[in-house]
Amino acid sequence: MEITLSPLSPSFSKTFITSLYELKDGERIRTCLQCGTCSGVCPFGYIMKFPPGKMIGALRAEIFDQVIKADSVWMCISCNACAAFCPSNIPITSALMTRAKEEMLLAGNIPSELQAAMENTQRYGNPLGESPRKRADWTAGIQPEVNILSKTRQPVEVLWFVGDYASFHSRMQPATKALAKILNALGVKFGILGTEEFSDGDSQRLAGERGLFEMVAHKNGQLFKKYKFNEIITTDPHAFNAIKNEYPALGIKYPVRHYTQFLFERLEQLKPLMKKEIKARVAYHDPCYLGRVNGVFDEPRALLTAIPGVELVELSHQRMNSLCCGGGGGGMWLDGFQWEKAHTRLSEWRVREALTVNADILAVACPYEPPRFEDAAKNVDAGGQLKVREIAELIAESMEG
Amino acid sequence: MKIAVPVKFVPDLVEELTIDPGGTALDTSWLRLIINEFDDHAVEQAILLKERVGGQVIVAMAEAEGADDFLFASAAKGADQLIRLTGDFSSSNNHALARALADLLKELKPDLILTGVQAHNDLDGSIGPLLAEYLGLPYVGYVAGLTAAADMVTVRKEYAGGLIAEMEVKLPAVLGIQAAEQPPRYVAYSKIRQVMSTAKIEERAVASLDLSGGITISRMFQPEVTERATMMGGSPEEVADKVIEIFKELGTL
């Protein structure tokens, strides 16, 4: 699609690089060796007119306005592979790419799909554009009843930050119910924010909407203050990342874990409950913001291998080298834009990897992924053989025995 | 060029609409309001025009929950003057709203008035033609793009079947905007926040509303199942079987 541009001042490169220095480890950009590792490891580097390494080169040459004009930064899905493998430890994703997107967005140069997600977040508190009144509808029929803190105001052990896709997306709701069932079976005293909850805002932040991120973060922060709990658990690795790494700078400090870490701690209690065999070769997809960014690799795998019958197989891209599902950093809302540019989807690539290792099930731990991978499987030869399951769904299924 | 954009909010269809127990109106207790989509395009078109030929954009609307947010967002996009009409609009209709807006516009004397061509809750005609009538100005609706000269605009008006007419309209005039030349732009939340602390919303009190000319609603109801429609239950497979049977009976298969 065509993007109209506001004129940039000739000193744009200089003001832009100065703004990077103000960010955490931003000055490291000076130490770039121009080795090109970032551009090589970037799953969309081959399609970008300016992959990360070239962006830094353009900054040094003071022709960064050309980077902004090329709009290829909207191919970045903030998967953090570039930063993870950079020998100079430059925060490429969190500083360079995010600031570049911010610049595009401030100038109003934003693909329309992404614009809709941002406007929805502003208006409804979730990028899907769903009525916030329906955020807790998934709890209907669950026994014992899910404790919605605004209604009960009871102190709880665990505040479960359910998140947007886990609350609203019809493919994710079964996984959300499954996790509620597991927590109930373990006797965990948990509560949710229900209709009050706002988007965690992390993907919007990584797509350049810093102001919107701060707005939703403060709203969630006000809610956290209102209720009594010991810790937060999240369904979504993006929410986990935001509350763990980004909210504290805004004065919102709470202990937080991803649900897979929380369940791993209770694995001995969980094991005798998992009686039904799930005889399958299961490949695990490391979500970027659980694994590569926050170092949680082993807990999800331990949960999967504890399920009777499961044979865990590894994908060719795994752990630090995991391949993004394509949904991060705004990618969830750039499907059309990115398809137009690349004519491929990372989720399809990932499904092919799972088929290559003869997996029966692709296990995931991020709410973007069940719908993304299921859709991708429909577009891939023999994709119909592959089932996509959230880890919580597999555990709950095994508990039915 | 001085461009005025009167806009209005409509019920947001993201919430399920329920009928008031009285049976003649929507239940407003859960109603969420949103900018009429066509009005959003009218604001965009006004700002595009301002960017091309210079001038001033005034956005005006009746008070409602969320109205200030919309006005500030318009300012962040480039609107220069924001006006909120205050008063009791709970039983308003388009005739009354257009009269109230006409009084304001007589005072503002804009060269051009752009407004959304229609809204999904227009029960008594759309705002544009009513405004034109009360102001004694020409009106052209279904406009998708325009160019401006000193005392005249050339508008592209859409007709059914993909026909487009170009016509010249002497100013001042009222135009009903079908679509702006580009989709309404995005404005970063931080920019809206900045504007909130600097921009001012002027208030204009509307003493009383003149509802005459509007319609009387005798009954408001959800779509009802007619006798010709057959509702099919069951699993997707069962429904598919039934559909195939029906198609066979009708001889289409």
Report on the architecture of this protein.
In chain A, strand 8, helix 19 and strand 9 form a beta-alpha-beta unit. In chain A, helix 10 crosses helix 20, helix 14 packs across helix 16 and helix 18 crosses helix 19. Chain A folds into three domains: 95 residues, no CATH class; 140 residues, 3-Layer(aba) Sandwich (Rossmann fold); 130 residues, 3-Layer(aba) Sandwich (Rossmann fold), CATH 3.40.50. The N terminus of chain A is likely disordered. Chain A has a five-stranded parallel β-sheet. Chain A has 20 helices and nine strands. With 401 residues, chain A is an alpha/beta fold. Chain B has six helices and eleven strands. With 253 residues, chain B is an alpha/beta fold. In chain B, the strands form two sheets. A nine-stranded mixed β-sheet of chain B has the order 9-8-7-10-6-1-4-5-11, with helices on both faces. A two-stranded antiparallel ribbon of chain B has the order 2-3. The longest helix of chain B has 17 residues. In chain B, strand 4, helix 2 and strand 5 form a beta-alpha-beta unit. At the A-B interface, helix 6, helix 7 and helix 12 of A face helix 5 of B.
**Strand proportion of chain B:** 25-35%
As a percent range, the share of helical residues of chain A equals 40-55%
Tell me the greatest interface.
A-B, 22 and 16 residues
Percent of sequence in beta strands of chain A:
5-15%
Q: What topology, given as strand order, has the largest sheet of chain A?
A: 1-3-2-4-5
CATH topology of the largest domain in chain A: Rossmann fold
Counting DSSP H or I runs of 4 or more residues, the number of helices of chain A is 20
Number of structurally distinct domains of chain A: 3
Choose one word for the global shape of chain B: globular
What is the average of the pLDDT values of chain A? 95
